[in-house]
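Hello,

Our lab assistant flagged a job as stuck in the queue for most of the afternoon. It eventually completed. Since we weren't sure the result was trustworthy after the delay, we are filing this so someone can double-check. Below is the sequence as submitted and the structure that was eventually returned. Let us know if re-running is recommended.
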Amino acid sequence: MVKKVDHIAIAVKDIEQATTFYKQLGLDVSAVEEVPDQKVRVAFIPIGETHIELVEPMSKDSPISAFLEKRGEGLHHICLETDQIDHTVEHLQEQGVRMIDKSPRTGSRQTRIAFVHPKANAGVLTELVEHPDDKQSH
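-- returned structure --
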C-alpha cells in the first residue's frame, strides 16, 4: 500500500520568490510545471527520498487561492506514495475513510493522485500518489 512520504506541499503566492530560500540552502529546484486542471503551478525540491512541493495558484478560482486567502502561505498537504492507487483508494473507502476524490485523477509529473478529506486525518489534507513507473499489471 503506502511506500513512503512522497512530498510535503507548501502553498505560496509567488513560486519564483519562494524558491529563493531553497536555492540559498544549496538545493535544486525543478522547472515550474503548470497543472491546468488543478489551476496551479508547481515546483519540486528533492531532499533525500522525498520532496518539498511549492504550489502557486494560477487563478482566483483555484483551490490554492482560497487556501491562501483563508490561511496565508504555509503547509498545505502531505503526500503518501502508493504503488497501487486504485486499490488503496478502494480499500480506504471500504474502511469508511472520507475521500475528496472517489477515484484517482491525473496530477503533476504524469502521476495519478487522490485526496483524502482532512477530517479523516486529524485535519491534515492527505494526498495519495502513484508514479507512472510504479504501475504494475495485475
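-- support follow-up --
The delay was a queue issue, not a problem with the job. The result is valid. Residues 29 and 45 are 5 Å apart (CA to CA). The chain has three helices and eight strands.
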